[in-house]
Amino acid sequence: MQDILEGNIAVKAAIQAGHRVIEQLLVDEHKQDRDTRYIVRLAKDRKIAVTKLPRNQIDALAKGKTHGGLLAYCHERAYQSLDAYVGREHVFLALLEGIEDPYNFASALRSLYAAGCEGVIVSPRNWTSATDVVAKASAGASELIDLIKADDMNRTIVQLKSQGISLVCAQRCDDAQSIFTYQFPKRLCLAIGGEMRGLSKSVRCASDQNIYIPYGNSFRNAMSAASSCAILAFEHLRQTIERTDKK
């Protein structure tokens, strides 16, 4: 199945990451800015066909209106494997469940990638209908970060544990520790669920440690998944920097 990515940020990230086959770039024949010239040069270096067209033809082919005169025809994104993390001293993965809105999913990926997360485990679902939305809303992070599809979540969790990667779940319960007192392990998979359904039972039951985000006011509702991703991921980054500075 063929996807279309639109705009400089999404297209550039897809080319740089190499997680999908890109068949062709369509570029506005009058588009000559520095970033576009770099993308075209990068595409030609990767043997990707580049076709220049009048802007009205690109407008007619595009799904949205924010493409800026650049489209990429590409294959579906390839998924990565947990095997790539065997033997690494430091691992920062995330596991996302129950995030149904593509904009929220994209925002979560954007924050995780910016904070140093290397890969995200996701349940099987077809995001192809929203590929361009996710790529643009994540500022290209969805193309750059590893995505690991868990066709069988129980088996994926067993694989995590067998590699010595701790599963830490963001959920408020009796044994949960505040993120301000908890020290993240060096090999971590941080599990975050959507605000409506949360994490599945199989993930909750496999948790090595539960953590929560303290609130400044009395507030019984959950943070959005995207906001939680940002807070938790950057707390992990803060701790990582602090450990490095102490060496």
Quick recap:
The protein is of the alpha/beta class.
Give structural notes.
Helix content is 36%, strand content 23%. The chain contains nine helices and eleven strands. It has helices at residues 8-17, 34-45, 55-61, 102-114, 131-137, 141-144, 153-162, 201-205, 225-246, and strands at 2-6, 22-28, 49-53, 70-75, 91-97, 119-122, 146-149, 166-170, 177-178, 187-193, 209-212. The strands form two sheets. It has a seven-stranded parallel sheet with strand order 7-6-5-10-8-11-9. A four-stranded mixed sheet has the order 1-4-2-3. Helix 1 (8-17) packs parallel to helix 2 (34-45) and helix 4 runs parallel beside helix 9 (225-246). The chain starts with a strand and ends with a helix.
Strand portion: 15-25%
Stretches with pLDDT under 50, minimum 5 residues: none
Query: Mind summarizing the main beta sheet?
Result: 7 strands, parallel
Number of strands: 11
- Shape from CA axes? elongated
Strand order of the largest sheet: 7-6-5-10-8-11-9
Secondary structure layout:
Layout: E1 2-6, H1 8-17, E2 22-28, H2 34-45, E3 49-53, H3 55-61, E4 70-75, E5 91-97, H4 102-114, E6 119-122, H5 131-137, H6 141-144, E7 146-149, H7 153-162, E8 166-170, E9 177-178, E10 187-193, H8 201-205, E11 209-212, H9 225-246
Parallel strand pairs: 2-3, 5-6, 5-10, 6-7, 8-10, 8-11, 9-11
Antiparallel strand pairs: 1-4, 2-4
Helix pairs in contact: 1-2, 4-5, 4-9
